Amino acid sequence: MEVQEWLGEDNQLGADIWNKKYRYEGESFDQWIKRISGGNEIIARYMKEKKFLFGGRILANRGLEYRGRKITLSNCYVIEPPDDEIESIFDCAKKLARTYSYGGGCGIDISGLSPKGAKINNAAKETTGAVSFMDLYSLVTDLIGQNGRRGALMISLDCSHPDVEDFINIKTNLDKVTKANISVRISDELMKAVKNNKDFRLHYTREATGETIERYVNAKDLFQQIAETNWDYAEPGASFWDRVQNWNLLSNTKEFTFAGVNPCAEEPLPAGGSCLLGSVNLAEFVDKPFSENASFDFTGFKECVKASVTALNEVLDEGMDLHPLPEQRESVHDWRQIGLGIMGLGDMLIKLGLTYGDEEAVKICDKIGFAMADMAIAQSALLAKDESAYPGCNTQEVMETPFFLRNTSKATKELVSKYGIRNSQLLTIAPTGTLSTMLGISGGIEPIFANYYERKTESLHGTDVYYKVYTKIVEQYMKEHKLTDDSDLPDYFVTAMTLDYRQRIEMQSIWQEHIDASISSTVNVPNEFTVEETEDLYLYAYEKGLKGITIFRDGCKRTGILTPEEEKKGAVAGEGLKRGDIIEINDDIIGKKRKLVTGCGSLHCIAMFDPYTGALLETYLSKGSTGGCNNFMIGLSRMISISARGGVDIYTIIDQLNSTGSCPSYSVRRATKKDTSRGSCCPMAVGNALLDMYNEVQEELKNKKGGEPHQKVAARAPKPKAVKGVSHKIICPECGEPLQSEGGCTICKNCGWSKCM
Q1: What pTM did the predictor assign?
Q2: Residue 18 DSSP symbol
Q3: Is residue 546 part of a domain?
Q4: What is the rounded average pLDDT for all residues in the chain?
Q5: Which of 566, 598, 632 finishes a domain?
Q6: DSSP string, 108-141
Q7: Which residues of 377-402 are buried (b: 16+ CB within 10 A; e: fewer)?
Q8: Which of the four pLDDT bands, split at 50, 70 and 90, describes residue 648?
Q9: Boundaries of domain holding 630
Q10: Helix, strand or coil for residue 387?
Q11: How far apart are CA 717 and CA 728, in angstroms?
Q12: In a shared domain, residues 198 and 160
């Protein structure tokens, strides 16, 4: 089999991703399958059928240790939290560097560090606080390369820490902690205080001195601060920590504690713990798709889950000696955590004719989730029968956890009672952005992001031409039903930006019922989504039992920082333009038109203005003919437009147009027909027309707002400003196409580039 046969002849993007990210030194597809499957023929078959794929680190690295490569098969780790002493803080940075060098991402919790102002016995006398060390860890993340990428880092802090407000606000400074995600551990105690509008105690006791630092804040104000900062900057994320600790197979095990979460937050882990990932593609288990008789193949699905649990345990054993640090090897040996998840949920629901988030969709996901959890636990018990349970397994404690009782059948309970279980953690839903893009399906539990994407090509006439590239599932449906326009699609073709956020939460909530780890998932909301709505979303997520939530508002300030600084394409209007920045134009502009008479005929002038400030944005000039003069006008209009969008005010532009001199044809026509527009050449006529249209727009805005128009002289013309309802695109640094937020990551559907948010 060739890779194009596997992915589809028209899926060049998928083939490119495979070649770039997972193929090793020219190996064939069959050689790759053999290497990655480790000789497991059953899992090799599921991979060829696109029903299962390992996580990215396994797909890229498995088997390469025999060729002298220092690699890990785990995607991410949680580093042991630093103790409240300088040696431990910097030792943590050392552990980060070593883990990054093997290709792993990291999570760190800094709740154990002293708050700002605590007394210390050195030259400083007082500590600079827990938050002050975040830049250290961010710097390490930036320094250590991973084959052209940078490592991923999550830093968390408990909501009761006295530095929590500084933590929440640290990334409002776009120059601080640029290489890390941040998340607040939110407790039930805080949420209770929020609901009752009570004060909440922030406190910390230094073990070394016994000093206690405490103060009280209004809980609702603190919660609003989290919501508002997220609304504006897409961070911090929220981890509902009591839910994290209480909904798993280890919630009754006193010897076990979670130390933090991985960068995408789907894996709460102990100190040194790692996430070893794989995902089942739900879209491939639909029989008779797009028909009234469509159904989900539960039998085939459960067999795939069974095989996947076995395969992940094989990889766990194989990779035991490949972890970068001794404490990581010890943790993996003791707790044997794996993370089997899903992808293709959005595609599956469309194939079944169900609307994402609706009652029927939630019901079938409840059934699928239970089947997955029950089978995974049962297979882990059978592995324990053959190879022993994980070292810390107390079977009775496991069987009494609320998660186990909710997610096991009678037969599975009997198996676990006999043999224990091989793994203390089994299920997670990780971001599968790159994997799902390679396969051409929706990622994780996300709905499809859009029905189509716009692609740009250049016509023979030198102008940009945009065309639709339909999402694969949309294309399949349209071909089968002979549709030519996506507007004719059924109502169940909903997308990430058209869903009510409650539908998103409902779906994540039902899956969390069946997942013992957590879920990496991004709730995309439109630009006009308010701070109050963001707060309500957090509250709803908490009430529905989520372990965490990531919110991304279209057009938030983080839009401008997700793309590396040196790769930015364009400017965000209203933020002040740097040299080379260009203001983007949105659809709600004000258009004006003038027909001018020049020395050699008619000249059509169209100008576009900002609807809020009236600033000039774009100009189109056409003589309605061909030849040198028309080409000159086209070039002139482009130069005017780029000057306006580069922040040059209209008066400066008009001054330059008025300094171009006179044209002989104007003198002749003025003497004969006497109908030329004001000016002595085409550029001057255009400048006068632009000024007239600009003043007209200002008058209209004055009447609309009931205020005074902008002065026509002296002061420079106003610049455009950012407005609600405008979509701000995040640009891919490799190909320049828009990125999308999915499952805690940003992913380019054009070239496959991705990174943790």
Answers
A1: 0.77
A2: I
A3: yes
A4: 87
A5: 566
A6: EE-TTSPPTT-B-SSTTSB---GGGGHHHHHHHH
A7: bbbbbbbbeeeebbeebebebbbebe
A8: confident
A9: 590-705
A10: helix
A11: 24
A12: yes
